[in-house]
């Protein structure tokens, strides 16, 4: 089940031009199954109308401290107390200052004082306002009080100035919210998970490479799922066609050797390694410096290949690291997977049919460990990632 399904979220929208981006966030969170109560500040309502949020969330939009609900329940206390999380996006300099001062002079600031749920604050403002010592000091105060803060982006602002102060895209805001919820109660909170994804690219010359059909979808879905479960996630990926999930440390790589170095560095402080990437077994012995040319007299060519290192097998001595390997095979799937599990000293191996799953949107899996096999029927990769991560959590040694 999706992390956001059934969650009660309060979304505070302040008076910033970036408020328009948050309409999309309200829709995405609602479609993911959350109940989203939008609080518009007075200034916020000048940028996006309540009707927009009401239509997107299917809930009444709240604007005033004095709009008491008909059942007589004190609205701001109930909203704050029942919320699983509060998101303030865009958060203006003004609201940030009032929060830091502990004021409660409108509905949003009152709800924020009355909640003990995790709070995510996404500042958005002119770069001069953002870099002002008063705003910076207020943000330090909020961080010290345990609020999760999202760094604003850099670039061109609405008023044609460049600098730091842009509200990140809804995709990033949702990812940060999921990470915050995961850190609060998720089964992987406090753990560092390293995930590899995509098919490596081994250069032949400056424009050509040996690659494979892996899209990176499964690895990226696993990284997102681990984040939702509260883990600190490092995603080492050679996928080029899909974006990484938000709120994970993303390390882009191309070759098997680059991936090996990145895995070694990330695993020095990791608890779990999920080696999902389709790593090339061989690479050209040397990559040509210039583009290889075909000449009229040339009849074919021979490429000398050398064997790539076994990345996860090389970490067999790390008994403290829970190691999950993938076996994508075209024949004798389960036998190959079983022998790989033992040969490489893995804690769990995930067998899948290479032709039916690589580069496809759906996948069927068989999980194999020392206790036996567990099948996961063919389903979208996002669902398979959730089922696989749940099975992994069950197998983790207690701490
Ligand atoms: C066109 C326009 C755009 C604004 N954009 C921002 C903004 O991006 N960030 C910000 O902190 N304030 C911005 N302001 C100023 C706030 O709207 C103002 O400080 C207001 O009092 C904020 O109230 P609130 O924090 O209750 O929403 C803008 C004002 C105008 C007129």
UniProtKB/TrEMBL annotation:
Cell membrane found in the keyword field: no
Role according to the record: Catalyzes two steps in the biosynthesis of coenzyme A. In the first step cysteine is conjugated to 4'-phosphopantothenate to form 4-phosphopantothenoylcysteine, in the latter compound is decarboxylated to form 4'-phosphopantotheine.
Domain DNA/pantothenate metabolism flavoprotein C-terminal residues, every copy: 188-393
Binding site for CTP: 281, 291, 309-312, 326, 340, 344
Protein name: Coenzyme A biosynthesis bifunctional protein CoaBC
InterPro entries found in the cross-reference section: CoaB-like_sf (IPR035929), CoaBC (IPR005252), DNA/pantothenate-metab_flavo_C (IPR007085), Flavin_trans-like (IPR036551), Flavoprotein (IPR003382)
Biological process, per Gene Ontology: coenzyme A biosynthetic process; pantothenate catabolic process
Phosphopantothenate--cysteine ligase: annotated span: 193-399
Family designation: In the C-terminal section; belongs to the PPC synthetase family. In the N-terminal section; belongs to the HFCD (homo-oligomeric flavin containing Cys decarboxylase) superfamily.
One Pfam family here: DFP
Pathway per the UniProt entry: Cofactor biosynthesis; coenzyme A biosynthesis; CoA from (R)-pantothenate: step 2/5; Cofactor biosynthesis; coenzyme A biosynthesis; CoA from (R)-pantothenate: step 3/5
GO CC field: phosphopantothenoylcysteine decarboxylase complex
PANTHER family for this protein: HOMO-OLIGOMERIC FLAVIN CONTAINING CYS DECARBOXYLASE FAMILY (PTHR14359), PHOSPHOPANTOTHENOYLCYSTEINE DECARBOXYLASE (PTHR14359:SF6)
EC number: 4.1.1.36, 6.3.2.5
């Amino acid at each position: 089940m999706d992390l956001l399904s059934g969650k009660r979220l309060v979304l505070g929208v302040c008076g910033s031009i970036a408020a328009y981006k948050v309409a999309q966030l309200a829709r995405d969170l609602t479609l993911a199954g959350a109940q989203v109560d939008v609080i518009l500040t007075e200034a916020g309502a000048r940028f996006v109308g309540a009707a927009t949020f009401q239509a997107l969330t299917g809930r009444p939009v709240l604007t005033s401290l004095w709009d008491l609900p008909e059942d007589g329940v004190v609205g701001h206390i109930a909203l704050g107390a029942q919320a699983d999380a509060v998101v303030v996006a865009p958060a203006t300099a003004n609201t940030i200052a009032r929060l830091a001062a502990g004021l409660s002079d409108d509905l949003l600031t009152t709800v924020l004082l009355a909640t003990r749920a995790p709070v995510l604050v996404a500042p958005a403002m002119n770069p001069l306002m953002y870099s002002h010592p008063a705003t910076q000091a207020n943000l330090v105060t909020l961080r010290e009080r345990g609020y999760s803060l999202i760094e604003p982006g850099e670039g061109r602002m609405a008023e044609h100035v460049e600098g730091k102060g842009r509200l990140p895209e809804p995709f990033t805001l949702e990812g940060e919210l999921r990470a915050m919820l995961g850190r609060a109660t998720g089964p992987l909170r406090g753990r560092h998970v390293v995930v590899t994804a995509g098919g490596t690219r081994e250069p032949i010359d400056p424009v050509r490479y040996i690659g494979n059909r892996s899209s990176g979808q499964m690895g990226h879905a696993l990284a997102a799922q681990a984040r939702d479960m509260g883990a600190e996630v490092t995603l080492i990926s050679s996928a080029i066609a899909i974006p990484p999930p938000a709120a994970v440390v993303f390390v882009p790589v191309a070759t098997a050797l680059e991936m090996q170095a990145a895995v070694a560095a990330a695993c020095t402080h990791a608890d779990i390694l999920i080696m999902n990437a389709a790593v090339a077994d061989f690479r050209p012995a040397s990559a040509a410096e210039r583009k290889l040319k075909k000449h009229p007299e040339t009849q074919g060519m021979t490429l000398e290949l050398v064997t790539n290192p076994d990345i996860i097998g090389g970490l067999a001595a790390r008994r403290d690291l829970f190691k999950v390997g993938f076996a994508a095979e075209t024949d004798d799937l389960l036998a190959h997977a079983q022998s790989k599990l033992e040969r490489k000293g893995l804690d769990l191996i995930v067998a899948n049919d290479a032709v039916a799953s690589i580069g496809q949107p759906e996948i069927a899996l068989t999980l194999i460990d020392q206790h036996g096999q567990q099948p996961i029927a063919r389903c979208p990769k996002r669902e398979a990632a959730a089922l696989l991560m749940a099975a992994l959590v069950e197998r983790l040694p207690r701490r």
